[in-house]
Design a protein that fits this description.
alpha/beta, 404 residues, seven-stranded mixed β-sheet, Gyrase A, domain 2, 2 domains, 20% strand, globular
Length: 404
């Protein structure tokens, strides 16, 4: 029995695979199944265990992947976005470095317990965080040509998978993750494997469209292969996805920095968008969650009320209220947290967002409107309470404690 972040886990008796499908709004699965494109998922929904869970807020990639592998919210593991304002240095930085982690991962604990562990992530930005303290295989599809034995636990990844290096802006990046997972399970048969994809398709294509169905048909085939190899599979997502457009299909954006500069004076406030990462072509760094640092003279409560009264804003919370409601580390968020409504995104200044790469109407995430995600296990688990609040970070609990 392992004890990690106040939770207990049994050691696996069967190969166990936990999958985080980036941006998987539950309707993607429903539509693919309805259209006959996901036969393995259809069987699993009928014969396994299927729940709808909540991801953590902000509904972004890094906080949720780290919640899944720690079994805990950001208030415990410390990763509260892809990007943050480091008050110690006065700089805006990516949260890719393991120095930002405040809690151990279950993956590290499993490897310490002598179990073989493999991690395959789509983007390299997650690799170091997921692999922190872990012995085993930890690779990214994005830089599959650079993986080596000393750093990643395996060399010759491209040859093993027998696929070319994928473009970071493609469905191929996620397919490489699944193909690598199948190849590793066939050749190395790790005790535990964690697979994490990218949401490139979900940012561009709504549930039930041909491109979305193609993606889920591809995923379904690989999951079927893992199932046939005897794996316990738990599938969840880091967040959902929604259209963020006006009636004319243009991005529906509230530019908070411009707004606050107008109210308080230029450069008085600092708006941080935790969605920000190196891969902004498909979302323009626009999401539904922002954090705001204010001058000490500002009236936080009055500003929260003024911002909250604007159309398109779902809620504005002070630091303390946001930390409590969303289980966030209070020292890593601003004086205010702003969450926009389902069809609205938040920006800094209009001049700072390059939207030229948006070749389809904007789809994005970050708010509570993208909080519901699937939580599916390919084993029937008796006695599951569908009425309790399940979280995506219950995936390992289900896979290791209930599905073996």
């Amino acid at each position: 029995m392992l004890h990690v972040n106040a939770r207990s886990y049994k050691l696996p008796t069967q190969p166990t695979v936990v999958v985080c499908v980036d941006g998987c709004e539950p309707d993607y699965i429903a539509q693919a199944v309805a259209h006959g494109q996901a036969p393995w998922l259809a069987r699993t929904l009928a014969n396994g265990s299927a729940l709808v869970a909540d991801c953590v807020i902000p509904s972004f990639t890094n906080p949720n992947n780290l919640s899944i592998v720690t079994g805990a919210p950001p208030s415990v593991h410390g990763i509260c976005g892809n990007f943050l304002f480091d008050t110690a240095t006065g700089t805006e930085v990516m949260m890719n470095d393991p120095k930002w982690l405040r809690a151990p991962t279950l993956l590290a604990a499993l490897s310490d317990a002598g179990r073989s562990v493999a991690v395959v992530t789509a983007k390299d930005k997650l690799r170091q965080l997921l692999g922190h303290g872990m012995q085993g295989i930890c690779v990214s599809a994005e830089k599959a040509d650079r993986m080596n034995q000393a750093e990643n636990g395996i060399a010759g990844l491209l040859e093993l998978v027998a696929r070319p290096l994928p473009s970071v802006y493609s469905a191929d990046l996620s397919e490489f993750v699944f193909a690598a997972g199948v190849a590793l399970m066939r050749r190395r048969r790790p005790d535990v494997m964690y697979l994490s994809t990218t949401d490139y398709i979900q940012h561009k294509h709504a549930p039930g469209t041909s491109a979305a169905d193609d993606f889920y048909r591809m995923m379904d085939a690989y999951l079927g292969q893992l199932d046939a190899m005897g794996c316990v599979i738990a599938l969840t997502a880091d967040h959902g996805m929604n259209a963020k457009t006006r009636l004319d299909a243009s991005p529906n954006v509230i530019y908070l920095q411009d707004l606050l500069d107008d109210w308080l004076g230029a450069a008085s406030a600092r708006v941080i968008l935790p969605i920000t990462d190196p891969y902004v072509v498909h979302h323009g760094a626009l999401g539904s969650f922002a954090t705001v640092y204010l001058p000490s003279s500002a009236d936080r409560v009055a500003l929260a009320a003024r911002l909250g009264a604007r159309r398109g804003i779902e809620c504005v919370l002070t630091r303390e209220a946001a930390a409590e409601r969303f289980e966030l580390p209070a020292d890593r968020i601003g004086d205010l947290v702003v969450v926009s409504e389902r069809s609205t995104v938040l920006g800094t200044s209009a001049s700072r967002h390059d939207l030229s790469g948006l070749d389809v109407p904007l789809r994005s995430h970050g708010g509570t409107s993208e909080q519901q995600v699937p939580l599916i296990v390919n084993r029937r688990i008796a006695g599951l309470d569908a009425q309790r609040r399940w979280r995506n970070f219950d995936a390992f609990d289900l896979a290791l404690n209930m599905a073996q």
